[in-house]
Amino acid sequence: MEATEVVLVADVGKSRCRVELRSGDELLGAADQHGFPGVHVDNGPTLAFELLLETTALLPPSLPISTLTAVGAAVAGVEASAEKSRELATMLSNRFSVPAAVLSDATAAQLGALQGGPGTTLIVGTGAVAFRFDGSGVLHRADGWGPYLGDQGSGRWIGQQGLQAVLHAYDGGPTTSLLAAAGALVESPELLPGWLAKQENPYRAMARFTPLVLHAAEAGDDVALKIVGEACRILTTTVKLASEGDDSSSPRVAMLGGVVESEFFAELLRKSLASAGIEVVEPLGDGLDGAALAATRRGLIQERYIHRDGTNWPD
């Protein structure tokens, strides 16, 4: 990215929307607020567009928005509708009069973590997915199929398993410190089903319990340790599936996401991956870095998964 370029980058996810204004590697300003269902839903491009503009409006007014050279947006739901993703890119380009690129949050994370190079990225947040782009730019993915059919080992999965263990202990099953930890959510475990039913985003709500499960596991709670150990085994399998066909002698993966920000969990996962012959490498950036890269560079190996506004902008 040229130092003179001023780029608006966004991560418009289901949990939150983040925007940053950057000049080269310098962060000029940032803002964030709530998320949205995904660009693939009815009226999704308009919802994403309006949310991105609302969040951008939260940036300090003194910032040089008028000097923008590009917009890059990592957006939830992109993989489900290329047409709506291109529509959003066109809306952004028309609004800011600059080239715009829209891509999935997972593609953006892989781009940022490996700075456009081939390789595998494991993203463990509320959901879980492993993304690998090979040298020809072909995508190989594993999981990321949402809370009903996938996202195994994710923050939602760990939290849900923890809450189920709470209710099992309440019924007389194996005792666990998670029973007391659930007091951070409800007065009594028997209130958990009703509490969850009232949540606007039940998957994110279950993920709120994940830090308590990790804390209990780190303290030696047997039930929590089993949950965390199973999550590591599942995620290792997810990475192995995405890495199948990798010609390198030792597959490598970069890890991103809120769950692996826990040093305790990240270390357990590293050991699990190492036992499968997979090396963990430090990510070079995150999803916002990937969005910036997509906005400012063309001809990336991930190009077929980046949706642009369609205008023949000069390189």
Task: Describe, in plain words, how this protein is organized in 3D.
With 315 residues, the protein is an alpha/beta fold. Helix content is 41%, strand content 20%. The protein is built from 12 helices and 11 strands. The chain has helices at residues 44-56, 82-96, 105-114, 146-149, 155-170, 178-181, 192-197, 202-207, 210-218, 222-243, 263-275, 287-296; strands spanning 6-12, 16-23, 26-34, 70-75, 100-104, 119-124, 128-133, 139-143, 252-256, 279-281, 307-308. A 6-stranded mixed sheet has the order 3-2-1-4-5-11, with helices on both faces. It has a 5-stranded mixed sheet with strand order 8-7-6-9-10, with helices on both faces. A hairpin with a 3-residue loop joins strand 6 (119-124) and strand 7.
Task: Offer a few descriptive terms.
5-stranded mixed sheet; 41% helix; 6-stranded mixed sheet; alpha/beta; 315 residues
Briefly characterize the structure.
The chain has 315 residues and is α/β, with parallel strands linked by helices. The chain has twelve helices and eleven strands.
Estimated share of beta-strand residues: 15-25%
- The overall strand count is 11
Major β-sheet strand ordering = 3-2-1-4-5-11
Largest sheet: 6 strands, mixed
List the helices and strands and how they pair.
Layout: E1 6-12, E2 16-23, E3 26-34, H1 44-56, E4 70-75, H2 82-96, E5 100-104, H3 105-114, E6 119-124, E7 128-133, E8 139-143, H4 146-149, H5 155-170, H6 178-181, H7 192-197, H8 202-207, H9 210-218, H10 222-243, E9 252-256, H11 263-275, E10 279-281, H12 287-296, E11 307-308
Helix pairs in contact: 1-2, 3-12, 5-9, 5-10, 9-10, 10-11
